[in-house]
Amino acid sequence: MTTVTSINEQSNIAATTNNDLIGRRPRPVFFWSNGEVMKWLKRCCEQYYELYGDKFLDNEITGRSLIRIQEDTLKRMGIDNPSHRDEMTRIILKLKLKSDMIEIKDLERKMHHQQQQSLAHGPNGANGQCVMIASNKNHQYGTTVDR
């Protein structure tokens, strides 16, 4: 099925969708406080929270430092059991990967929005012309109609 919408309509839809997603999206890990890291540790590393939570608290691990933690960092923090370090490193890497994927999707969404804006305000969209976008499931097509 093919639909035709104006750039303004598409911009409004994109803005609404982006605002909805931003409103529901959790705070980026990079900006987490030590308290937020402790909540994450309790929720996602429950078996290690009781054993090592105090080490994360004492070392004031924030989100910024959490995503940089490696196995040797955990060892310096006093986590001596190698299998615990391996498991915690794996869980932290999964968190970092998930965070990176969200950031990549945000960048792609932003680029798409900028492309739509440049199409609407570019040379074909100026001087009283109306730019229309026809889209189907896989493609978008632009056309200019004189007013």
Automatic annotation (TrEMBL):
Q: Name one Pfam family in it.
A: SAM_2
Q: Name one GO cellular component term.
A: cytoplasmic side of plasma membrane
Please list the GO biological process terms of this entry: cell surface receptor protein tyrosine kinase signaling pathway
Gene3D superfamilies the UniProt entry points to: Transcription Factor, Ets-1
Kindly provide the name given to this protein in its UniProt entry.
Answer: SAM domain (Sterile alpha motif)
Organism in which the protein naturally occurs: Dermatophagoides pteronyssinus (European house dust mite)
